Backbone:
């Protein structure tokens, strides 16, 4: 749309062009007219001169009948009879002033030279041009004003139509009323805008879904959990109180290690379905997945008494699921009451304490953390104290059972072993969550005693069952190898069992070895002196160089599952593993692969010359 100044400028230019054209045509017309007028006057002058013999009378007659710029009458002898020059010449357009003419009259013995004065004609044409220009200027101003008003009115109608159509687009409706203005191009443009908006809305919906949805369970994730909790904490919210329930999947790490990540994903989805089934009984209940193993349930406007019924329902569902699954437990739950004064961080800490206490009770138990001051006093250590008692009970009463999972050699000359997996029992002979047990043992500085228990039990089992023809891997904590008393005990233990020591391979993580290179080297040297061997597990997660392994001289490296999972489809991991195998074999180190879950993965690893494969596809854990 043009502005007033733009329209005025455009119309002014057009007016000037028109005026110039009119002026040029007027000048051409006037020039022709004056030339013709001078020719006619020449004929008339000849006739008058012949009729009037008196020279003075002739001059007066000519002056009266015409207006001259110059008039001169002379005899053939050169005698000047009359001479006149107009001293006040008016406005004359260039090229319109006719040239002076000279007439010779032999019969009258006269020569007449004249030039007509056309200033009156030029002035008339000038006035005509100025009048036309004034009219054109007036028309320009009027037309411009009208154009601006019409354009403004038209654009107002277009704007109203666009606003109307866009409102229908936003409401996802079709126009059932008559249009304010019918413009096919506008309708097509609105249609394109609608398609664009729909595309943007769809893209935004997809991005929002990705940002706030857990891809495995399709539940709302931690971001949505925080957003939801903040919304119900607002003063205008209808939620004044409620219960926060945190449920922790206790067997995820074990399932991933033993059965593989696919089974781990299935386990998580099953637990999510179980919790969702319990939450569905509460109209306003919301379920979220916070991280790999934790789920959060918010029960708005529900009392702790009602929430206990919810947790009992959860435990029953978990127990039923456990009976049909190869699991020692399913999940443990911590609950805490909240109102609009409770910060989220404090609630999560209290619920976590509740989970720690629940894990020391019966399988799939729940615990209500009622005391909000627990974070500020010694009651916060209740979970730790319960765990300390359970760990001490396991150590003192040797409440441990051992399973083995085989590592299958890929060639006849490959030297591999069976990995020993420890399970711990409480006083009721119920299985404690292994990952939580180990984590709490490290936290409470009990891990060395736990590792001693595992090693002693494993050696006793090997000897009592006469399994000296086989080799066995025992996991050991990185913190334990830094314990001087443990190292002395282990060396003496291995030296007292010369037949068993060569059959034991100690597994320690790459990360654990990196924490203290000097201590790690001393531990490995001691193990080698006693006749046992070393496996560096979860290899590839850190940035360890092969110079590190050349100095430490491990016997095996076990590749982290991130490199072996779906290896048949991952060309990059295939290339990396082939390189690792070549370098390891040059250093006389055997390479093992864990979490092998399919025949395709196994065949691919064999082609890469991996020495041994371990995983659910190869063999399930079984009692030693």
Residues:
């Amino acid at each position: 749309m043009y502005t007033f100044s733009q329209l005025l400028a455009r119309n002014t230019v057009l007016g000037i062009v028109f005026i110039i054209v009119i002026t040029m045509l007027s000048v051409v017309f006037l020039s022709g007219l004056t030339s013709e007028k001078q020719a006619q006057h020449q004929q008339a002058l000849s006739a008058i001169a012949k009729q009037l013999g008196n020279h003075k009378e002739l001059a007066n007659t000519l002056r009266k009948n015409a207006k001259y710029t110059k008039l001169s009458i002379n005899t053939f002898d050169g005698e000047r009879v009359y001479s006149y020059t107009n001293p006040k010449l008016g406005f004359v357009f260039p090229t319109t002033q006719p040239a002076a003419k000279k007439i010779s009259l032999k019969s009258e013995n006269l020569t007449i030279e004249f030039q007509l004065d056309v200033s009156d004609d030029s002035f008339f044409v000038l006035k005509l041009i100025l009048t036309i220009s004034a009219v054109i200027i007036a028309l320009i101003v009027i037309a411009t004003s009208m154009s601006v008003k019409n354009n403004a009115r038209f654009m107002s109608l277009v704007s109203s139509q666009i606003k109307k159509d866009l409102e229908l687009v936003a409401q996802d409706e079709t126009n059932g009323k008559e249009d304010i203005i019918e413009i096919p191009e506008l309708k097509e443009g609105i249609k394109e805008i609608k398609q664009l908006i729909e595309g943007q809305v769809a893209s935004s919906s997809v991005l929002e879904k990705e940002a706030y949805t857990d891809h495995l369970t399709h539940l709302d994730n931690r971001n949505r959990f925080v957003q939801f909790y903040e919304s119900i904490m607002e003063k205008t919210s209808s939620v004044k109180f409620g219960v926060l329930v945190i449920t922790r999947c206790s067997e995820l790490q074990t399932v991933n290690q033993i059965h593989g990540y696919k089974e781990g994903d299935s386990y998580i989805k099953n637990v999510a379905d179980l919790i969702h089934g319990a939450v569905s009984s509460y109209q306003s209940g919301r379920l979220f997945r916070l991280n790999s193993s934790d789920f959060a349930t918010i029960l708005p406007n529900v009392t702790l008494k009602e929430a206990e019924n919810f947790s009992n329902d959860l435990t029953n569902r978990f127990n039923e699921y456990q009976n049909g699954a190869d699991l020692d437990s399913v999940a443990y739950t911590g609950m805490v009451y909240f109102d609009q004064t409770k910060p989220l961080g404090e609630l999560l800490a209290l619920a976590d304490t509740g989970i720690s206490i629940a894990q020391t009770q019966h399988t799939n138990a729940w615990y209500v953390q009622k005391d909000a001051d627990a974070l500020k006093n010694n009651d916060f250590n209740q979970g730790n104290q319960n765990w300390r008692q359970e760990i001490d009970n396991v150590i003192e009463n040797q409440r441990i059972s051992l399973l083995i999972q085989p590592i299958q050699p890929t060639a006849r000359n490959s030297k591999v072993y069976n990995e020993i997996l420890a399970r711990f029992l409480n006083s009721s002979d119920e299985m404690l969550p292994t990952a939580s047990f180990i984590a709490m043992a490290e936290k409470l500085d009990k891990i060395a005693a736990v590792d001693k228990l595992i090693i002693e039990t494993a050696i006793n089992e090997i000897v009592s069952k006469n399994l000296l023809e086989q080799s066995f891997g025992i996991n050991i904590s990185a913190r334990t190898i830094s314990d001087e008393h443990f190292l002395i005990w282990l060396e003496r233990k291995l030296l007292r069992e010369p037949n068993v020591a060569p059959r034991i391979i100690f597994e320690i993580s790459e990360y654990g070895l990196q924490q203290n290179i000097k201590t790690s080297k001393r531990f490995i040297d001691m193990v080698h002196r006693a006749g046992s061997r070393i496996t560096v597990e979860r290899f590839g997660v850190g940035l360890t160089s092969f110079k590190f392994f050349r100095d430490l001289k491990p016997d095996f490296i076990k590749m982290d599952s991130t490199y072996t999972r779906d290896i048949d489809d991952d060309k990059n991991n295939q290339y990396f593993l082939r390189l690792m195998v070549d370098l390891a074999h040059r250093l006389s180190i055997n390479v093992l692969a864990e979490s092998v879950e399919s025949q395709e993965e196994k065949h691919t690893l064999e082609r890469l010359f991996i020495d041994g494969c371990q995983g659910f596809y190869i063999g399930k854990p079984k009692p030693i």
Observations:
- The first helix runs from residue 4 to 51.
- Residues 1-181 form one domain.
- DSSP finds 19 helices and 19 strands in the chain.
